[in-house]
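Async update (no meeting this week)

Hi team, since we skipped the sync, here's where things stand on the single-chain job. The sequence we agreed to prioritize is pasted below, unchanged from the tracker. I ran it this morning and attached the output directly underneath so nobody has to dig for it. Comments welcome in thread, and please keep replies under the output.
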Amino acid sequence: MPADTLLTAVRTHLELGPTHTCVMEPITKGASGRTIIRLKPEGFPTYIGIHYTMERKDNANYLPVSEFLRDAGFNVPEVLYDNPGRRVALVEDLGDVDLLSMKDEPWEKREPIYRSAFEQLDKLFYTRAPKDLEFQPEFDVAMYRWEQDYFFDQLADEYLGMNPAIVDELSEHPALAQMAKDLGASSRNLVHRDFQSQNIIAHDGKAWLIDFQGMRRGRQEYDLASLIYDPYMNHSAEEQQKLLDLWEDVSEEEPIAPILQKCATQRLMQAMGAFAKIGRQPHQEWYLQHIPTAATILRGVIEGSDLEEPLLPVLDEIK
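Output:
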């Protein structure tokens, strides 16, 4: 059992006897094919224990990417023990306060964490990885098209039960193919890939990144859009503008509006596909409640563009 394996890991790491008390608290958020437990050995600091499977190939990337990011000066939890053979790791416990848990806090309290997160994102743009470090497949035209198909397959077809012929016709719309081509023309910088509120921990007044095993090369605007148009947070138009202004202050650059719009569209399509797929699994219904929110945000993103034609028929089916 994963919990027993993690308990053995913490006993081994601290050289504890078999009767030494260690309280275990499951951490249930996320859907990455991993078992994550907070371990509280009596008389010692707490740890986050991670047991992963190869259900998702990116899980094997967590440890090497973690080492790379920490060596490069990023705010990521320290890996204190790892046993690749048993697929377990013990990492620094940064606490439970993420951006999502701060959703109802005033902007003045959230702003420093968002600023810190954007500083990490800006740093990532300029960071060069070792040549022998393998990441997940890059964001090219095929990857963007895969995300689009994921949206239509998991949301429109499987979840909404739309007519397959209509779904196929919408998915082949030239506006979607052009969007993938435009975004896939440049994919040489590192992106977190899941840069959203649950994966940004507030600790010591700064933002700390977690769940970065899906890191790959792509467009920086994909991560930027993931945070600004995060369905979990459901930022108002005013808050979206505040975040854009904050990003421009940190990066000293204004994002190219059409590229940001297309990255936001891609990210929201991917998220909605994931919500639909994961939410149909036992005990994961929590994800389904975010589909209408994401649909509303996506409507605003594509308003007045040629992307309305292939996407609005799907969004109209969401209640």
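Quick observations from my side:
The chain is about 45% helix and 15% strand.
The chain has a mean pLDDT of 95.
Reply here if anything looks off.
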